[in-house]
Amino acid sequence: MIHTGQHYDSNMSDVFFEDLEIPKPKYHLNIAGGNHGVMTGRMMEGIEEVLMAEKPDMVLVYGDTNSTLAGALVASKLHIPVAHVEAGLRSFNRRMPEEVNRVLTDHISTHLCCPTMLAVHNLKLEGITKGVHQVGDVMYDVALYYANKAKSQSFILSQLNLSHQKYVLVTCHRAENTDDKNRLEQILKALAEIAKESKVVFPIHPRTLKYIDEYQLRHYLHSICVIEPLPYLDLVALQQSAKVVLTDSGGIQKEAFFYQAPCITMRDETEWLETVDLGWNKLVGADMDKIIQAVTQAEHGTRGIYPYGRGNASYTILKHLQV
């Protein structure tokens, strides 16, 4: 296991290894900060040294981060097969660095492990049909595995004096929102208005807080329960009991769906169209009025449909890779 260090804050990295009981990485590259090119280039340099020393039979990469692309590029150039988990996802917005990362990774992967049939279809439209497998979503595996553990081991609701379905949970970290003063201010204005009617809990990403201070927008946070980034199990517990989840995170959109919490997504598009089609997720962009209206009118969607599989994606991936 190689940890590039892309998520360098201890609350965004170390705590996940502890909460999920994941073994410590054999290699930690400690690469964080810098523009996308600098970061990806440094990752490639570090990963190449590891792969040349280890000579693995295959390199497994996840998702759509700079770490994903760096690992896939290095492996491909060393003629090592690449397996991409979460292959085929598309927002069709090339301004998102994540979109560029996932498209490029898919086109150099040997095994493409797709979470949904839509992801398989997206790859087919790009001419990728070989090595494509619909396996389900590993995040659903994780959600099922840790759901009860979060309920029994997290005390975050009592610590924050929260009642079941009596608060709105917020996360915001995407560059399209944080790096644009107008979008970020619209979101914060909406949160301040929502906080007049419901308690708003906002575990704040270091990147988001940095821009809030840079744009001098901190006054909007006065009526909001702003807390540090949370350990995984605490975040799961908050999602399980939230009245509404308000986010720009791809992962949290799905987790809200897994835990049957209505989700409002502060983006103009999503890779997880199934959550929208089933009525659990609504796209509102960064428009203050749309955000407020969506939270006010949020309701539960269709139950009993499983677009992301039944929680056995990990086993299915292993079957395809054990050749």
Strand content: 5-15%
Q: How many strands in all?
A: 12
- Largest sheet, spatial ordering of strands: 9-8-7-10-11-12
Can you tell me the CATH superfamily of the largest domain? Glycogen Phosphorylase B
| Proportion of residues in helical segments | 40-55%
Per CATH, which architecture of the largest domain? 3-Layer(aba) Sandwich
Shape: globular
CATH class placement of the largest domain: Alpha Beta
Radius of gyration: 20 Å
What is the total domain count?
2
Average pLDDT value?
95
Q: Could you give the distance between the termini?
A: 20 Å
CATH topology of the largest domain: Rossmann fold
Structural commentary:
By secondary structure, this protein is α/β, with parallel strands linked by helices. It folds into two domains: about 1-135 and about 310-320, Rossmann fold, CATH 3.40.50.2000; about 140-295, Rossmann fold (3-Layer(aba) Sandwich), CATH 3.40.50.2000. The chain is built from 15 helices and twelve strands. The strands form three sheets. Strands 9-8-7-10-11-12 form a six-stranded parallel sheet, with helices on both faces. A four-stranded parallel sheet has the order 3-4-5-6, sandwiched between helices. A two-stranded parallel ribbon has the order 1-2. Strand 3 (about 60), helix 3 and strand 4 form a beta-alpha-beta unit. Helix 6 packs across helix 11 and helix 9 packs parallel to helix 14 (about 290-295). The chain is globular, with a radius of gyration of 20 Å.
